[in-house]
Amino acid sequence: MLMPNLRPSPISPTVDFDADGVQHGFLRLPYSRDDSAWGSVMIPVCVIRNGEGPTALLTGGNHGDEYEGPLALYDLARTLDPKDVSGTVIIVPAMNYPAFRAGTRTSPIDKGNMNRSFPGRPDGTVTEKIADYFQRHLLPRADIVLDFHSGGRTLDFLPFCAAHVLPDKEQEQKAFAAVAAFSAPYSMRMIEIDTVGMYDTAAEEMGKVFVTTELGGGGTSRAETVRIARRGTLNVLRHAGIVSGAVEKTPTRWLDMPSGDCFSFAEDDGLIETMIDLGESVEAGQVVARIHSVGRTGGAPQEIRATMSGVLAARHFPGLVKAGDCAAVLAVVE
Ligand SMILES: [Zn+2]
User: Domain Succinylglutamate desuccinylase/Aspartoacylase catalytic: where (predicted)?
Assistant: First the structure.
């Protein structure tokens, strides 16, 4: 176990998180490089505060190729009136800003995956420095955290809002109440392949109410998934008592990921044929996807069979897969 490194963060915010009103500014991170000797990475941040009350921390662009969060959050930063707020809303629409500008999941500077970089390091890579700032400066301010994801270039998801099963059942119940308020078409009790280094885990270990989403994918967004993101953001803020007005509840279908058996992986390179579409039902043993060899004709495809009965919650997006790619994710209807 490393000793905690208490060196200060190199990031300077150009906003005052304790000032009332609307502020549009930056988290300025010095980044010396060939084309800018004393340059900085300028991560956009907006703070909307109106007096005492709870604080919501809203983030998009944790992965740079996922767009519903940034679309909803740039929009919210432009339109939310502090008169309608009680407390503080901190908006970072593009958390891994270098990755977001490059349109890639990870940072082009250091290949850092923001959601595997927590708790970060003040003396680490650019991505680790951003993570460290969230870990030590932004997360501690928050009562509720909403972090937007979708599938990015390589996955496509059913539109869902999610929280994790947690050891602290009171904290877990608060997170699922916020998921219900978000009112996505699907609500997920989610498990992760690999929780080490996740922003989710960092927030949850601090006892925060943490809510996330998967709202589509393919390296783009759709009109419907952006509408879901906009409505869900306001609903979570209303639920938290930060924005006035009633939660606009719409029907949701609860899904559960009971174990790691939900995930299926390609065992060979090839051409993927998904045999059912997102949201369609599947019985245990049914073929969910086939992977066809392309090097020569005549070979039998690799069949990926459902390990449980449920619905298809996510699928590989591009037509070609490599061995080890996540091919499909199943979820059980509650
Ligand atoms: Zn993501």
Answer: 53-239
CA distance 146 to 200: 10
- Residue 333's contacts (CB-CB under 8 Å, 6 or more residues apart) are 253, 254, 255, 256, 310, 311
Task: Read off the amino acid at residue 195.
Answer: T
| Separation of CA 129 and ligand 1 centre (Å) | 19
Q: What per-residue confidence (pLDDT) applies to 1?
A: 46
CA of 92 to the centre of ligand 1 (A): 15
Ligand 1 center–CA 209 separation, angstroms:
19
Cα(18) to ligand 1 centroid in Å equals 30
Span from the CA of 118 to the centroid of ligand 1 (angstroms): 14
| Cβ pair 117, 96 in contact under 8 A | no
Give Cβ neighbours of residue 271 (< 8 Å, ≥ 6 apart): 291, 292, 294, 319, 320, 321
Q: Tokens in use for 36?
A: 């800018």
Cβ-based burial of 304 (10 A; exposed 0-12, middle 13-18, buried ≥19): buried
Give the Cβ contact number of residue 38 at 10 Å.
8
Cα–Cα distance, 62 to 138 (Å, whole number): 14
Quote the ligand 1 centre to 67 CA distance (angstroms).
10
Distance (Å) from CA 184 to ligand 1 centroid: 17
Say how many Å lie between the CA of residue 244 and the centre of ligand 1. Answer: 30
Judge contact between 227 and 160, C-beta under 8 A.
no
Separation CA 199–CA 114 (nearest Å): 8
Q: Which domains does the chain have, with CATH numbers?
A: 4-253 (3.40.630.10), 263-333 (2.40.50.100)
Residue 65 CA, ligand 1 centroid: distance in Å? 8
CB atoms inside a 10 Å sphere around CB 153: 18
Residues with pLDDT less than 50, the chain: 1
Interval between CA 62 and ligand 1 midpoint (Å): 6
**Integer distance in angstroms from the first to the last C-alpha of the chain?**
39
Q: How far is the CA of 251 from the centre of ligand 1 (A)?
A: 25
